[in-house]
Structures are given as C-alpha cells and as structure tokens.
Amino acid sequence: MCGIVGIVGTGPVAERLVDALTRLEYRGYDSAGVATINEGKLDRRRAEGKLVNLRGVLAKEPLPGNIGIAHTRWATHGVPNETNAHPHFVDGVAVVHNGIIENFAEIKQELIAGGATFETQTDTEVVAQLLARYRREGLGRRQAMHEMLKRVTGAYALAVMFEDDPSTLMAARSGPPLAIGYGRGEVYLGSDAVALSPFTNEVTYLHDGDWAIVGKDGVFIFDLSGSPVSRPRQITQAAAYLVDKGNHRHFMEKEIYEQPEVISHALSHYVDFAERRARFDSGTIDFSKVTGLAMSACGTAFLAASIGKYWFERYARLPVEIDVASEFRYREMPLSPDQAALFISQSGETADTLASLRYCKEQGLKIGAVVNVTESTIAREADAIFPILAGPEIGVASTKAFTCQLAVLASLAIGAARARGTIDEATEKTLVRHLTEMPRIMSRVLNLIQPQMEALSRELSKCKDVLYIGRGTSYPLAMEGALKLKEISYIHAEGYAAGELKHGPIALIDENMPVIVIAPHDRFFEKTVSNMQEVAARGGRIIFITDEKGAAASTLPTVATIVLPEVDEIIAPMIFSLPIQLLAYHTAVFMGTDVDQPRNLAKSVTVE
Ligand code: F6R
C-alpha cells in the first residue's frame, strides 16, 4: 500500500520525510519520492525500488526546502518506475496519492482534448492536471482543491503542495486514512500516526470525505460541500507499536479497514482499469484449452475457492472439482492433464494444501497458486503464481486475505471466460467496471455499518449458537461468517445453504436462535426470503443482511436489518463480507477474547 508523509517545517524537511517513510515500509511499496519547495520552486527526487535508492539519490543531489511531501508507491496504474513514482508535478502543483481515482480515464480524455499532455501512466496525474487547469482558469488554491475533489471519484488519500504557497499543504481523504500531526511550530501529514510518531503524538484523523488546509497559521478542515468541520485532536500511542496497528485496537480491525486499499492494489495486477479488461499473466496455464479445474484449500481460503467455483462455472463454463485440502489429498480423485488446478493459501505453507498440490502435479495438471506470500512453498511448486497482494496479514482470523483472494479469483474467472469465448467484450467490460468500483463501495460500507455492527454484537455476544444461511455465493459466505464468529468469539456457529434448512437445521430454531440471513437482492432472493419465512414462523431471531432493494422487498420481522448498497453479483461476496467480519470482530471485542491470537489457532498450519 502506498504511504504518504508531509511536513510544513521550520528547517530542511527532505531527510525527515524519508525517515518517516521508513516507518511505512511495512506496507509494501515499489518506488518512492520526495518533493519540496526550494527558493520558490518545486523540486523532487524519486527512485524505483527501496528507500535506500531514494536516499542514494538524495545523497548525490540534496533537496533543500522547509516544506515537503513524500510517498512510497505500491503500483496500481502504471508500472513501478521513476516516471510513475510520486510526487507528480504539473505547472506548479505537486501531488502524492494513495488509492484509486476511478474516473481517471474519463477525466484524462477530457484534459487531453483540452490540450493537456500527460507524463505518466498513473491515475494520480489527473489530480495534478485538474488542479493546474483550475489554477490557470483563475481559481485560488482552496477553490481549485474543492473543484478537483468534486470531479474525482474513488478511494483516495491525497497530499497537495502549491509552488506559490510555501507554507501550506492541502490534504483530502475518501477511504484510505490520513492523519494531521501537530508539532512545535510545525504541522505534518501522514498515512497513519506511526509515520508521524518521530515528530508528534498529537494527531487529528481526517474523516471520510474531509479535506484540509494544513499550515503553520492553522489547520482548517472542510467536508465535501466545503463547510468547515471540527475534528478532535488526540494523543496516540503509535510510537509504542513496532509493527503497527495504526489507530486501530487490533490488527484484525486494521486489516478489515485496509480492504478497500489492498483490493485496489490487488485488482490493478489483474485488470486494466482504463480499458476495463482482465489482464494477467497465467504462465503455462492456458485457460482457453483446459477442460476443467480442480481447486483446493483450507478454512477461509477454501471458502474463497468455493465462491470462485461459482464464477468459473458461471462465466467461464469450466467445471470445477473442489474439496477441503485435508480430504482432497486422500480422495484419489481421477484427474487428467488437460485440467488445471488452483490452490488458494494466504501463507502458502498449509500442509494439506501443499499435499493436494503435489497430488495434482503427479497427475500431470498445470498448477496455479493463489497466495499472499509469494516466496512460500506452494508458490514455489506452482507453474503459475497469482499473488493476492494483501500485504502482511497479522490477525489470525483472515479478513483482507479472504477478500483479496476473492478479487483475484473473480478476475481470473473473467479472464478465463474471455479466453474461452464464454463472455463477450461488453460483458467483460461491465464485470471489470464493477470490480473497479468495489474499493470505493467497500469504504462507504465500512463507514456506514460500523455503529450498527457494534450495537448488534452486544446481542450476539449473549448467544450460545448462531446460524448463518445464504444461497449462491452467499452460501460459502454464510460458512465464512460462521467460521469468523466461532474462531474469535468462541460462540458456536454454523453456515448452511438456505435451501438445506428444512432438511435438518430447522429443528434448532426457537426464540433463542439468531439466524443471520445473507441475501442480496439477486436471482435467489425470493427463495432465500421463503427460507427466512420458515425461520420467522418458528420464532427465530432474524438478522437480515441485504441491500436497499432487498430491504424494501421483505416485510418479515427482524431483530436487525443491515442494508448495504445494491451491487452486481460479481462483487456482492466482497461487499457482504464486511458486515460478517465486523460482526465477528465486535462480538469478540465485546466478549474480551484475544482477537488477534484466538486460542488454539495458528496463522500458518504447516502440519497435517
Ligand atoms: C480463518 C483462517 C484459516 C485459514 C486456513 C488456511 O480465519 O485464517 O481458516 O484460512 O488455515 O490458511 P492459508 O490460507 O494460509 O492456507
């Protein structure tokens, strides 16, 4: 993930900015850069690769100046090279950015038609270009910033510096976090308080939709309508954390909130946002020729694979054989070399998954590894590696790795479908557009549902058992919801296909049994509502996770209805993951369990 730092200082800032960036290194990055205003002129140093390269450039060519912004870039749009590294400069405007500007292609076209020339392949450059255009048209700095924010959509954190104002930075947040720090005669900007911890422990976190003018004369924060808003200053403990939780209580919470950002990054390696095409290297696996897929994994990764199966079958018309790895490895399943096999694993070290991979390899199948740790054994033994790019996942209960696995599997299914000619170009573009919009929707949902999830978790924490039900891709998601709840809150929970309810589990329903129904208003909605009806008729307590259309369509009594935005079926599993993750998280916090290291569980299961 990208990292942002800014200083309005009392002395030279370049070295200090790079020092602060080192505290964001853990997030992963592939290039870095720093810019200052020196004697009334913007200047910058940038380098591909690690910060040591940037330090090398600075040692050769120091960068004076008492105000500056700096960035570590984790490439999304455009390859990781020096040209695409931030800060980006256009006519006296400098910008660093974290996230995705969703409508950059449209804005870029418009700006090019108006005579602009672009230097980089990044989405970020449209921000600098727009600001420069508004300034040329005569707007002041503050107005230009406000106009630019009205034009761009997506998930972003931005820091902006104007050459004609060497005492002020501007900032904006929609999604990825951004903090303002206060020092003696200085002010700072940072992606998180840890980046700012060498300078100050007094910070203000911008809220979603906020933008700010940050100068020695004061900090002024506005909402998107341009009205001033006030945000609290707080003292952080960030300096105390070596591996940081940012402003979160637990790694799990941090990882839940990181999802919009890490998913943008992951998607950028599998889809072309501008062309709206699936684009990835599948190595020696030729999806156009394979006759079927075998998929295997454990736990949450298996549930991601189970959702992926729906996509490969529906879009790419590929039959998928799937099983948990501890069964798969011993089933002696007949497989043929014209099939391919995908193994999904965050750690890439899970013993059963590895054994299943080796079984498929012996049968002559081409092997794909969908992994987070690309140096892992599973990755090394595969023919093609599909990294999920979630960044380090510290919380034992998987959250961001799950949704990144889903994002990657969805992209692979779309690419396979195109290669096989089972979807046309227009469908590919539509599906990719939905994927592109997902990070922004995730950010919105995370903000929207947080208070309701916290309140609901108090109810859930009193329960002994919880049932989760769903149909289609919401069925594996129901199982994931149950798994998340049981592993961190120790409450017994089961996930069922909603249609299976009447074949057994319905016997459990009474007025003490909460039933969490996952039902976006999709092809299965009416049928799921019938199953809900069966629960309601027996006095079961329904927690209904649906979308706006679903909420309007059902009149059944519920304990709570969680209303998410209406989204396409291809992204619904990722969006609907958020309430189930937050519900499990807050229930566990409420019960006082060890959220990040639940009893009896390990992050990497390297034994059978
Ligand atoms: C649950 C969880 C586990 C893992 C499983 C597989 O939250 O994290 O169920 O998904 O142990 O681990 P990996 O993905 O490392 O193979």
Description:
The chain has 608 residues and is α/β, with parallel strands linked by helices. It folds into 3 domains: 3-247, Glutamine Phosphoribosylpyrophosphate, subunit 1, domain 1 (4-Layer Sandwich), CATH 3.60.20; 250-423, Glucose-6-phosphate isomerase like protein, domain 1 (Rossmann fold, 3-Layer(aba) Sandwich); 446-603, Rossmann fold (3-Layer(aba) Sandwich), CATH 3.40.50. Helices cover 37% and strands 23% of the residues. The strands form 5 sheets. It has an 8-stranded antiparallel β-sheet. A 6-stranded antiparallel β-sheet has the order 5-6-7-8-12-13. A 5-stranded parallel β-sheet has the order 18-17-19-20-21, with helices on both faces. The radius of gyration is 25 Å and the shape is globular. The chain starts with a strand and ends in a 17-residue tail after the last helix. The model has no long low-confidence stretch (mean pLDDT 93). Bound molecules: fructose -6-phosphate. Fructose -6-phosphate binds at residues 298-301, 345-347, 350, 353, 397-398, 483, 487, 604-605.
Large-scale geometry: globular
Give the spatial strand order of the biggest sheet: 3-2-4-1-10-9-11-14
Question: How many separate domains make up the residues?
Answer: 3
Number of strands: 26
Enumerate how many helices there are, as a single number: 18
> By helix and strand content, what is the structural category?
alpha/beta
What kind of sheet is the major sheet? 8 strands, antiparallel
Ions, cofactors and other ligands present here are: fructose -6-phosphate
Rg computed from alpha carbons, rounded to a whole number of angstroms: 25 Å
Which architecture of the largest domain does the CATH hierarchy give at level 2? 4-Layer Sandwich
